[in-house]
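Can't attach files on this board, so I'm pasting raw text. These are the components:
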Amino acid sequence: MRGAVRAGAALRAMAARGPAATAGIIVIGDEILKGHTRDTNSFFMCQRLRALGVRVARVSVVPDDVDTIAGEVAAFASRFTYVLTSGGIGPTHDDVTFEAVARAFGEVLAPHPELVALVHRFFGKTDASCPEMKLARIPTSSRLNYGTDRRTGSAFKYPLVSVRNVYIFPGIPALMERALDGLSHLFRNEQTCFHSRTIYVAADEMLIAPVLDQANTSFQGRVSLGSYPDWASNYYRVKLTLDSESEEHLEDAYRFLMEKLPPDVVVPFLTDPVSQAATEVYALAESGSALGQKVAAALRTVEGALDRYSLDQLCVGFNGGKDCTALLHLVHAAVQRRYPERQEKLKVLYIRIVSPFPEMEQFIQATVQRTWLAAASKSGAVCSRAASPAARLAAARSMCAGTRSSSAPWRAPSGRPWST
Amino acid sequence: MRGAVRAGAALRAMAARGPAATAGIIVIGDEILKGHTRDTNSFFMCQRLRALGVRVARVSVVPDDVDTIAGEVAAFASRFTYVLTSGGIGPTHDDVTFEAVARAFGEVLAPHPELVALVHRFFGKTDASCPEMKLARIPTSSRLNYGTDRRTGSAFKYPLVSVRNVYIFPGIPALMERALDGLSHLFRNEQTCFHSRTIYVAADEMLIAPVLDQANTSFQGRVSLGSYPDWASNYYRVKLTLDSESEEHLEDAYRFLMEKLPPDVVVPFLTDPVSQAATEVYALAESGSALGQKVAAALRTVEGALDRYSLDQLCVGFNGGKDCTALLHLVHAAVQRRYPERQEKLKVLYIRIVSPFPEMEQFIQATVQRTWLAAASKSGAVCSRAASPAARLAAARSMCAGTRSSSAPWRAPSGRPWST
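---
Top answer:
Structure tokens for the assembled complex are below.
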């Protein structure tokens, strides 16, 4: 009963909001259809629009042909809330997007006084037939949208042109991304928020297909459920995604699946283990399992070091191997729990071997960036790269190094065992 | 006159061949429109189809919705020679591509005896309602296409389903790629070969737009001309691409542009400097320019070493820096010219500094792979990584090391200057 009441309330809320705003993306460019260039713009647009509460309903890649583009623009404009085009707005013969959008709506191109002034200002040109002036000839009903630079807060000097519900973005990825981020207010749909959950399953899709069918039937129209096999992952076989505009429906569907899926097939795969380290590691330590007991013992050692030394006096040995990565994670979890608000970074010492694999170096760099380590210091250098690692570590009094109990113990140069 | 005669002959040849075969690609997947997953399949398909003589006319990304997919399939099937779909053919509720293709052509799904037998063989299942059997229920007019594994030459065990001119590919990239490569004969269009040339221009698009307009007008319908600014390149500002089904037209358009473009804006940017090293480097050495004279002098030293020592006795010092990269290129050019058929690889010695940047290590790896260097030995290790660099270099009698004349000369540990 309670579930039904909640579901009813959520449905009413959804009906009041109306369906989500939709978008169609038109990527314009022969070079993409010829396989010369890989389109990255549509992926960026899909991600950003979803975060803004807009459902992307279609992506189309079309050639640099006025009639083809015009046909797609007209069709998309009548079906979707927003149409975003990308590409074809430069000064050369193959830049035909403005012409195509004009044709889609039965308009013509005309010089826009504001853009003519900008062309004069940027290029020093006033001749109506110069290539630069092509940028100023736009469909007659165009609007000019000045975005805001998100870093500086100041308005962009050059506007994005839109015609009705069609927004005409540049094709150069850096420019398109900056323009979309600077104009996100045009697309933001406060009434819609997409909620997502993910379940990772260590079993073949065939095994879970019947449960997914049931879930899909029970939540159809309220929660969209996707099932994606991953043949490359070491952790799971299938990624299930649940998406809904209602957090309540989402949680209902999530619980439904967690109850109905075969026992033990759901695996706790974390895409971001770093920010949740304290919660996850201590839950494991307190679980009482065999692994949990070992983790708890290691945490006691780490906490002993944290009791005796300040963060400034501590240093973790890290060479990118499995053992010391596990240790680093434990230290990170203990520090995260003890100093949740800390600003200072944890120090690591990376003693480079003579011939490290480049993949290892990359992993170390990525780990340093991910785990709030001291290495991201002002020099921008990682670990021991800067002039004097000794100087950096001068304040360190305690050193943690991860090894297996089956390995010979590490010893400090003095011959005494290291502290952990 | 001669040009007109040739153009006439080429046009007749093209008319005899008819227009190129076309393809439309339909990528099926909510996950792509939601920005959860980046589509890589359409790029792969565009590249492969073009190489097979097929012009990709459209790419469309659609949600997992039967009616939407059916509408797009029907529209594409009537407009393009081939339709390739990707995704939505697994066992779960969100796999609706077969159903959608059936609906597009007014067909229904029915178990295909050959696929039923394969499901039995692979999964040991015969129950008509089991999830596995969904893979065997396909549109009634389906054909089964068994591709050939290009590595082994044997037929794939599982076929690709097609309905009329619609080819239904899996969405998992590795499977799709293998299927398309194994079935390329279905799409190969022997009558069409796309020819391409690229011109790199170190000038703003505005400056060359008028010439491009002229070229486009002169060659419209015969050569397609693209102009792509690149804001990230250190070598050029604009990449011009010329594409044609006629090599003759392509060369005419290329000559037209090379004559009309402003002087000195075309830059000789080589995307593959390695395979053309001998030609390019010796042309520079013989050009008589100031740089050419220096290159010629360096080549004389390198050739002196090649006169005195066998390749097995030679080793190039290489640390990824600018100086020794230039030297490596010169040695590579000299060796390429002297031993064009050689099988053996050139030896390099990389003396790693204590803290190399990972980017440098990556560059060194890439260079070693690109330039036919000894490092690609059986151990799979690069340069000095393996157990005994000394053992590998035991046979080396001469060492080339690149420095600038402005730097202090390198000296061998013995105190005598190194040979170059």
